[in-house]
Write a structure and sequence with these properties.
This protein has 77 residues and is mainly beta. The protein contains no helices and seven strands. Helices cover 0% and strands 44% of the residues. Strands 6-3-2-1-7 form a five-stranded antiparallel sheet, with no helix packed on it.
Length: 77
């Protein structure tokens, strides 16, 4: 049986980044990864992901999406 990891934030909370390269940025939490101790914050740490060819992207694409940041670097706004 897996034990639940307690976190100080949850999905949908409005947070501010308090340290790191994205200090001062704010946004809404899209996803929480409690086992890894990371969160996805809307509009923070945008990374470029290369997409291979598919029916939606016949030429392939470079997609921008949020990257995870450590949960200790955010606080509730």
């Amino acid at each position: 049986m897996a034990s639940r990891v307690k976190t100080h934030v949850k999905k949908g909370d409005e947070v501010v980044v308090i340290s790191g390269n994205h200090k001062g940025e704010s946004g809404k939490i899209l996803q929480v990864f409690p086992e890894k101790g990371q969160v996805l914050v809307e509009g923070v740490r945008m990374i470029k992901k290369h997409q291979r060819r598919s029916q939606e992207h016949p030429e392939g694409a470079i997609i921008e999406r949020e990257g995870p940041i450590h949960i200790s670097n955010v606080k509730l706004a």
